Amino acid sequence: MEKIKYIISYVQEILKDEQTGHDFDHASRTATLAETIIKEDRLQVNHFIVAASAYLHDVIDDKVTSDPDRAQQKLQLFLQKIDCTWTEIEAILTIIQNLSFSSEMFAKTKVLSLEGKIVQDADRLEALGAGGILRAAYFSGAHGEALYDESKVPQHFHNKEEYRQPTTMVNHFYEKLFLLPDMMNTDYGKKEGRRRRTFMQEFLQEFYKEW
């Protein structure tokens, strides 16, 4: 689809200097995982909305932009320029504004459409497994966080401000990543999320022995 080609180019440009694990490769894998979920669970969806939202889901996130409002305005103008309908634009923006872990945990978010739930699961699967371990280390390194500190125990956060405070890579596993499989929406997301979490738990056992 021509509009997806334009969207891919847009995301590549926006995320070309991204160095926290939320780069274009992550967006591309999220899109691929979303299609896998659709196929495995035999879901009837708007494939354009799923693909567009998967590719675009981080371009207005405060993890990658210092001005989310301006990034959203820019995105909306771009989507209009490539002839997306207002219905499509609204569907995409609603998904990418409401799929994050922090939005679900600490904000009053809109109920996601089936397309949004699929993209949410795909994005969360990306945070798990072998790739999730590497991305967590990459993110912690980019923010100057330690890999592990025995004196710092994992926290239970009550708001987004607490959640955004510096932690360690290993604590992040307990504070967020290990919670994700139980928050999945789709059958494939739940099954694959549990499989990837088990791998990460086994990794940590080896890590603790080496430490």
Automatic annotation (TrEMBL):
SMART domains: HDc. Residues 19-137 form the HD/PDEase domain. Transmembrane segments: none annotated. SUPFAM superfamilies: HD-domain/PDEase-like (SSF109604). It comes from the Bacteria. InterPro entries: HD/PDEase_dom, HD_domain. It holds the Pfam family HD. This is Metal-dependent phosphohydrolase.
